Amino acid sequence: MEFLLALLFQSTGAIDIVFCPEHDCESFLIENLKKNTAECAFYHVTNQELFELAVIHVDSSNYKGQGIPIQSKGLMHHKFCVLNKTHVLFGSANPTANLNHHNNMLLVESKVFVWNFRNELRRLKGKKHFFIKNFYYNGYKTSHLFCQTHNCQNKLYEVVGNANSVRFLFFTFTDKRLATLLNEKYKVTNNVSGVIEGWQNTNFWAVPDLKDTPHKINNGVIQHNKLLITDQNVVTGSLNPTNNGYNNNDEFIVVFSQPEIVKAYTDYFERVW
Asked: CA-CA distance, 242 to 170, in Å (whole number)?
C-alpha cells in the first residue's frame, strides 16, 4: 500500500557516486558547493573554506564559532547538503580528515530528495515539516527515512530479511539483533560478508554475534561507511547500526533499488573486500 501511494511521488534525475579515498571527495564537495547555493548539515566540519561556500549547521558539540549549532537529543550526525533546490549531496563523510577515510558520497538530482532534506532542515530548526518516505526514483522503489521520525532499525531488518545476498561495511556496529539476522541469513544463503572498523571494538560490539558469517576487521585506513548492499538494494546514509543511531541521533538512510546503483556499490564492496 505504501508504494502504491508512492506512485504519486515520482522523481527522475542524474546521479553521481564517488568513493573516498579512491576519489578526491574533498574536491568533489567543494566544487559542487562553489557552483551552487547550498545549505548543509554536518556533524563536524574542520575545512574552514566550507563556511564561506554554504550555510552550514553543525552539531553543538563541534561548534567552534562558525556555522549554526544544532542541539540534538543525541548527536546531530547528518552529512548532507541541499544545492540550488535541484540537487542533494549526501553520504557517510564529514568534511574533516574523514574525507580521506573509506566513505561514499552521492550527488543526486531529485525534487523529492530536495524536499525531504529541506524538511529535515526545517525540523532541525523546530519548524513544521513533512517527509515523503517512499517514492519512485528513476522508476525504481526508493525509501528515504529520518531516524528521529521513522523506524530506521526495522527498515534495516526488512532489507536483510528480503535479501538473497548481503554485503555490509560498518563503522560502529552494536546492534546484536542485526548481527544475528545476518548470521541467520548466512546459514540459509551462504552469501553474506562484511567489513567492520576495528577502531570501534568495545564491550558493546555486535561482531561476536556474527559467529560464522565471513567478516573482516579493518585496521588500516578507517572504514567509515555505513552500508548494506544486497542483491536488491543499497542502504546508505549517516546511520551506524547502534542504539544511539536508531533512537537518539539525527540520522538518515536512503534505500535504493535502481540496478545501476546496486551494481556500483557491489563493485565497490568487492574492491574493499
From this structure: 11
